[in-house]
Design a protein that fits this description.
alpha/beta, Glutamyl-tRNA Synthetase, domain 3, Ribosomal Protein L25, Chain P, seven-stranded mixed sheet, 17 helices, about 25% strand, elongated
Length: about 575
Amino acid sequence: MSLREEVLRAAVQNALRYGEAKPGPVVGKVMAAHPELRSRAREVWSLAEEVVREVNSMGEEELLRLAEELGVVEARRERREERRWPPLPEADRFEVIVTRVAPEPNGYPHFGHVKGLIVPFVYARMYGGRFLLRFEDTNPRVERLEYYEAIREEFAEVLEAAERELGLSPGRWDEEIVESDHLEEFYEKARQLILQGDAYVCTCPARVVRAKRARGEPCEHRDQSPEENLELWEQMLSGEFSEGEAHLRLRTDMRHPNLTMRDPGIFRIIEHPHPIHGDRYRVYPTYDFAVSVMDSLTGVTHAFRSKEFEPHVEVQKTILRRLGLRDVVMIQFGRLTVEGLPLSKRYIRPLIESGVLEGWDDPRIPTLRGLKRRGITYEALVRFLFDMGPSKVDAAVSMDALAAYNRKYLDPITPRYMFVPNPISLEVYGAPPRLVAELPVHPNRREMGVRRIEIDAPQGVFKVYVPYSDVRSAQPGERIRLRGLANVRIRSVMPDAATAVYEPEKDLSVKIVQWAPADGSVPCVAIVPETPYSYRVVGGYGEPAMSELREGEIVHLVRFGFARVDSAGGSLRLIVPHS
């Protein structure tokens, strides 16, 4: 099949499923099926744009006729009604919808962060609006440059997958904002509140502040004049107070039923170098101040956050109102956790430091880099979260549920290979001088071709590896079939070896087993993640063609499971996410 035919098939399928073909998903599908085309990406993209224009100009009848000729009629039958997300509240108030994702660069992104990325991204694209990536980096003690880069890289990959899988374009944020670049603006807003009498500098110890807030008692500094507070504020900025000795508080109501509304802190001193600005600043806004002001200043219309922040909504709206800034529609959604797997850094970090985990990309943990190394595709992750929708209900999902989505995505595009776990040698007698096995790369996609494995049998004898589990209970005289190669009759089975006799007739009614030739097979180690503390290791041999696999490729090991190549070169290390 020519490249144009391959692109045309993908474009027709995309048009039938979504009503209109788009170049991004078409290129993604073609590249996934043919990784060797990555070096010709520009050519493929140009061709996809041309073919997509052609397909989108067709009427439904013409499109169906072409689909039938190309053998993709089933795509229309599989087309499903996309899950309808609830409309954005108060969307009519705004000419342009602007949403954002606002990660703090204090660790590597994990599964739970993806919901906070996908929800605002989908809404921005649904409404033809703008989507922002904003780093909330105003707590320098826990932030590092490597986390900025990890978030950029991994969020970009997820959004590119969202464009391919959901057809939402462009699969990228429209603007990047670094919150700490706006500290001088924050300081001006703080001065405004001070001069209005809406904020005061408190020098009480933290334990005293907590106790008085709990009891609803006013702070002794509450009645300082704006001039006195402004002088104290400038002293905070200039370094006359040390960390913990002074902080700026919003003047609200110390008897408010919502404890977070009782004169909350809005600026504090942090004496720690910032990963971008070094020692230039020492006074930083709290989350409530920074998130509300930045949302308003950057044009955000709808701010999404997990519902644990719901008690803070009133604080943030009060800050905006006192500053005379535009209000933001604040929307909460439920938190996402993974059954049996930790998401919090405080649980994962000790496991890494103690050597239980290899690092933040260990395939046993649900960081994005861990999931990717495990073989979970971002397309499956995106579809999984899209189908869940922006629910306000907390959800604990299982890896089995995610595996089902991953399997559905991988199954149509992943090449098959034979892998022999826990092998035993099988010596076959009475064979012709040469045998050839022709195995389809994919049972349902002829265009992916076949693999040929040639077996020499000098003096009528050849040796292969087969799974011990397939022959250990076989009785003498029992017949099995070596997949795609030959039928054999078992002669003997011992713990370390077995023998059999070649049979010329082809009989598919007997047990079919995978095998690897003794000469040319590829040593493999398959790692099966089980818990954050353990994994199962399965050794074996793969067929010769597996020697051409490269790190990062995902394959389907016949009768064993999907696997991602973790390392290659002489032998293969494979990560098995699921069957």
